Amino acid sequence: MHPISPLEQTLHAARALVLADLSAGDVTASDVVSMVEESVVQRRWWVEQWPQGAGYVAGLVAQDVQDALLEAYGRWPLCPVCGGGDPHALEVEPELGPDPHWVCHQAGVKVAALGSLAQAVGGAASS
């Protein structure tokens, strides 16, 4: 058995975090999981070119999947904090940085760390 490289550990962690958030919203159809896999393939190449960016991969995969879902289905993840008005999606912050989290810019709050959307379903937000 071969040890898993740091690059593969990073990619597996990113995949797991995004899949956890997709599961929180029951958005786990096979074509959606394929979107995650496609992003992981693309980000593998990206981090091979820029190894210092490994800490940013999870947020980038989340953004990739969010963009792919917008094209195919609509906004994801919908904000669980704002009850009224037009439904809107959360955004990943920082756009390129470590420790990515979902933010509602309309309410100005951090909703959940990437991978923890299940805890936010129902409207509990942290600052």
What's the short story on this structure?
The chain is mainly α and about 130 residues long. The chain is about 45% helix and about 10% strand. Mean pLDDT is about 90; it is low at about 125.
Question: Terminal Cα separation, in Å?
Answer: 43 Å
* Shape category: globular
Overall SS class: mainly alpha
Q: The biggest beta sheet, please?
A: 3 strands, antiparallel
- Order of strands across the widest beta sheet? 1-2-3
- Nearest-integer average pLDDT: 91
* Uncertain segments: 123-127
Rg calculated over all Cα atoms: 15 Å
Order of helices and strands: HHHEEEH
Name the descriptors:
127 residues; mainly alpha; 3 strands; 9% strand
List strands and helices in order, with pairings.
Layout: H1 6-24, H2 30-49, H3 57-72, E1 91-93, E2 101-104, E3 109-113, H4 117-120
Antiparallel strand pairs: 1-2, 2-3
Helix pairs in contact: 1-2, 1-3, 2-3
Give your account of this protein's structure.
The chain is mostly helical and 127 residues long. The protein has four helices and three strands; from the N terminus they run H-H-H-E-E-E-H. It has helices at residues 6-24, 30-49, 57-72, 117-120, and strands at residues 91-93, 101-104, 109-113. A hairpin with a 7-residue loop joins strand 1 and strand 2. Helix 1 runs antiparallel to helix 2 (30-49), helix 1 (6-24) crosses helix 3 (57-72) and helix 2 (30-49) packs across helix 3. The chain is globular, with a radius of gyration of 15 Å. Residues 123-127 have low confidence and may be disordered.
